[in-house]
Amino acid sequence: MWQYYIILGAGVILLIMGIFSLRDTLLFLKKSEKTTATVTSLRMIESDGEAYLPLFTYRAKDNVEYTYGLSEGSNPPAWSIGDTETIIYDPAEPSNARLYTYFRVFAWAIVFISIALPLLVIGGGYFIAQQFLK
Asked: Which of 18, 28, 82, 90 has the fewest CB atoms within 10 Å, counting from its CB?
């Protein structure tokens, strides 16, 4: 029975983390600016084979050029030099940028909540079932 307390507790903690992550993401989206970024180079790294990480360059409203590099890559490269993507950035800190895609913006909230919900169902379901199985 103590295992269900752990499962329920883990589910609650992950749900809280997911809600805070979602809140932070929505606040970032609310204050961010949107711009177009261009792939200016592909960096090759060795990680269980070759992977190509794109480096994006974009111009913020202050007319200064910034770069944004993805931390994950692929082989073959998902982007070519000259390709463009939409980027969102914080106007107060233009170097804080993200690719403007659903999963890249909401990734951590999705991960935390999708793990939390089954744990809550399993952990909470045990205690609800105890009420009916007495």
From this structure: 82
